[in-house]
Amino acid sequence: MVYLGNYASPVGDIVLGSDGENLIGLWFKDQKYFLDSIKEDTVQKDDLNIFNETSKWLDKYFSGEKPLISDLPISPRGSDFRKSIWKILCEIPYGKVITYNDIAKEIANQKGIEHMSAQAVGGAVSHNPISIIIPCHRVVGSKGSLTGYAGGIDKKIKLLEHEKVDMSNLFIPRKGTAL
């Protein structure tokens, strides 16, 4: 059984997921891959302690504080490869961005291999089940393009602006603009 809760954020409604003790999901309502990692039945239960803790964490984040990821018991579900990518995401500082290629190089280094596909990294980043807290919004394309955010590029931009990321070197797509 997976429990679901809700959080109203300044950038859109959020659905929280838990196994009863750990946070296993945080999705923008109706985002791409919504509840993708959840195979069990779900039940609405807003009053779980983990949801209260997560709401407090998000309140701090949206008020401009920089709460630590380690402040919450998170347990994202995914393959070992995806988890290795998500671990790197957790190390990206507030207000900074890195590229998919940076992550690919780090993974190649960790595995002792010559090359890792940035596209494979992109697939893992896009399937991050705990948005915001595991900060996939801090990953950009190799030339600073704001690509691939399952919650939508508009939300990615708002989150980066909220964190006061220097947007001057980033390519922000406009409607009708191909990347």
From TrEMBL:
Protein location: Cytoplasm
Record family assignment: Belongs to the MGMT family.
Function: Involved in the cellular defense against the biological effects of O6-methylguanine (O6-MeG) and O4-methylthymine (O4-MeT) in DNA. Repairs the methylated nucleobase in DNA by stoichiometrically transferring the methyl group to a cysteine residue in the enzyme. This is a suicide reaction: the enzyme is irreversibly inactivated.
One annotated GO biological process: DNA alkylation repair
Record keyword Nucleotide-binding present: no
Species annotation: Anaerofustis stercorihominis DSM 17244
Entry protein name: Methylated-DNA--protein-cysteine methyltransferase
GO molecular function: methylated-DNA-[protein]-cysteine S-methyltransferase activity
